Amino acid sequence: DIRAAEQAVAAQSALVGVAEADLYPQLSLLGSIGWSFVTANHLPDTFDIAAGPSLIWNPFDYGRRKNAVRVEDARLQQLIELYHQDVREAAREADDAASGLVRSLQSASIRDQASQAAQRSLNLASSQYREGFADFQRVLDAQQLLLQQQDGYLVSRGNAVSSLVTLYKALGGGWDASRAPIDPTTRQQMQQRTDWGELLDEPGPSAHAQGETK
């Protein structure tokens, strides 16, 4: 989400620049070249060059263009606020996941120690039952307590794994750096609109190898 928000802000910032460029006159240079010759009358060849500037500007449309800049700038500010909101949300999710991971690991450690104590209690109850110093109910109670502690330990470990996965995702994990950042359909559409050169090409194996050796 944060990467998408960053791209949206960058794209809108470019639109603001385009709108601001429309505020100023557009100056261009026009030119033509001509070459003529006549061989029948043995006239000399002629070579003509014509060049001159071209200025396009409509001062009466300045107000509308100025408002267009303001509209694009307002949209940019809105996207910036959304970006900040996404960053805060990601930070909150990471903090919650980290806290949950710590609590789950602490709970699992306590449950593990309790399971070991319950196992010793079961061994003692079983020994006393075999020697006739305790009834079988005491053995059953010790077994039930052991199962409860073992079940609690497994639940705590499961919660720890879940919190770890959530933390990994909140920190941006799960993104494959070798994957092309732009899908083929989008790349084709962008290349049809604008000359991107080699900027949209997928990095080859050599590029990945160079990146790994740096």
List keywords for this structure.
single chain, 214 residues, mainly alpha, Outer membrane efflux proteins (OEP), two-stranded antiparallel sheet, 5 helices, rod-shaped, transmembrane, transmembrane beta strand
How would you describe this structure to a colleague?
The protein has a single domain (2-174), classed as Outer membrane efflux proteins (OEP). Residues 204-214 have low confidence and may be disordered. It has helices at 2-21, 62-130, 136-170, 184-193, 205-213, and strands spanning 26-36, 46-56. The two termini are 28 Å apart. The protein has five helices and two strands. α1 packs antiparallel against α2 (62-130) and α2 (62-130) packs antiparallel against α3. With 214 residues, the chain is mainly α. The protein has a two-stranded antiparallel ribbon with strand order 1-2. 67% of the residues lie in helices and 10% in strands.
CATH architecture level-2 label: Up-down Bundle
Q: Quickly count the helices.
A: 5
Helix content: 55-70%
- The name of the CATH topology is Outer membrane efflux proteins (OEP)
Number of structural domains: 1
Using only CA atoms, what is the Rg?
37 Å
The largest pleated sheet is described as:
2 strands, antiparallel
Helix and strand succession? Answer: HEEHHHH
Structural shape: rod-shaped
Overall residue-averaged pLDDT value: 76
Please name the fourth-level CATH homologous superfamily: Outer membrane efflux proteins (OEP)
The strand order across the widest sheet is 1-2
Percent of residues in beta strands?
Answer: 5-15%
Low-confidence stretches: 204-214
Please state the structural category: mainly alpha
